[in-house]
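tool_call: predict_structure(chain=1)
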Amino acid sequence: MERETEAKSHEAIPMKEQWMILKRMFQFTKPYRKTFAWAIIAGLALSVVNVLLPFVLKDFLDNYLTKQTATTKIIFFFAGLYLFGTIIKAIVWFFQWFLYEQATSWTNQNIRLKLFEKIHTLGMRFFDQVPAGSIVSRLTNDTNLFDFWFVFLMVLTGVFSLVTSFIAMLTLNVKVALITLIFLPFLLLAIYLYQKFSSQIYREMREKLSELNTKLNEYISGMRIIQQFRQENRLEEEFSHTNEEYLNMRYAMTRTNALLLSSLVNLMYSVAVMVALSVFGFDALQHPVEAGVIYAFLTNLQLFFNPISQMMDFLSVFTDGVVAGSRIIKILDNDELTPQQNPNANATITKGKIEFRNVSFSYDGEHNVLNNISFIANPGETVALVGHTGSGKSSIINVLMRFYEFSEGQILIDDVDIRDFSIEELREKLGLVLQDAFMFVGDIAGNIRMMNENITHEQVVKAAKFVQADQFITNLDGQYHAEVIERGASYSSGQRQLLSFARTIVTDPKILVLDEATANIDTETETLIQEGLANMRQGRTTIAIAHRLSTIRDANLILVLDNGEIVERGTHEELIEKGGYYSEMYHLQSMKAE
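tool_result:
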């Protein structure tokens, strides 16, 4: 899939696909179509004013100034009339741009919100496959489409300006007006060539920008490891290489724009002016040509070419927007959704009994990481999962939490299929504590209540005391309002884990899921964490991945996994007496501890 995507990124976007992208993108403008419509009407009115103003000066030049019949009253009348037209033009121009920019801002906000909402519906497999930096690039760079929407205003008003200015030229001189049409085929050819080459360049440029963001996200997140292992020079070279590739894409874009956009149109405009003046010059040899006619014609000729020049300039913005739109639609159409519950799923978890019946699961759809997993965790019991890395422990947690869809078998909670519970019910009644306790920027209380204002401060304090977290919180400046910086870096791993315990317990879940929650704790808070865990497990069904086997000696059932299968099961004493896989692991850890 990745190779196929990479190959496509080097191809130009076909016109049929561009049209499909435009249709999809225009759906985001529907809530604001009235504002867009008024802005377009203002743009059309502006075109009419632009065409009429030269005729005011033409009339003054030909009927009064050249005939020397102008009086002070007439001069002030035409000056006032032209001033009035200019004021009307400024007012119409203001409303055109104000309304259109307002509508584009709303549209961009709508796209960003829809994309953000979509990302929250995607399953974990999507985030496994797509780098975080690439996702950030889609949400920030690809949704920055302010200039893209102005392309369509330029096209609509430009076409209207073309028509009105050409009609005006026809009324002034039919022969010269028809001669100017010779330039249209060349302009259309330039547009075709530009679209053909630029879409490929912009697509590659967007991909390189996404790659840059991905590398930045990775480097910043792993800065400690980078500095620890002195990888700065290597990563600087990698980033410099990607940045150079992006720069080359921008050079290619600049060359294409310089060759096929304004420079070409300005050249044709200059040639058209030369042709028009030549024709008028030859006509003047045979009969007088009014100066006002020449002025009005050249002004309208400029009005004829100006929108073409603007539209050509906006072709680069249009192509860039189409490429960005294709990347947005790719996420919106992604079907890697979170596992779906059954229609009308409204069951309620009351006791917390868990049962796996012959559950099999695969991340890629081909190679199973779980094979026929079966066990029962009765209400209030603790089931521990042990085994080497890759044995399938975390996969059991993933399917239980509905992060991934299992392929075979059945998972039951309180003897009800897990798909008959709403996701909200599962998230409320299943409390998950991960090995890496992620903290958000804010304060202690905010990280415990997870921005849920329905949870009172008293509940926050009670939860912290319950898991022994209050013992270090009360020693902080500000206590529960103490600052938490990014990822909670100012706190130890043990303190972050205690806060994670409090965050989980404050919602009073029926089922507790511990994913190696004691793997990275420091000795300073180890005792507090063990006491906190003991309190949390009381009266709750617990599924725990055990890193330290000594912490699950009191488990009601221990499942030993290897290559996605349960190879041993029983209590700690039963498994030690059996002298098998678990016994070897336990004695090995005991020897290391000594």
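agent: The domain at 20-332 is CATH 1.20.1560.10 (ABC transporter transmembrane region fold). Proceeding to next step.
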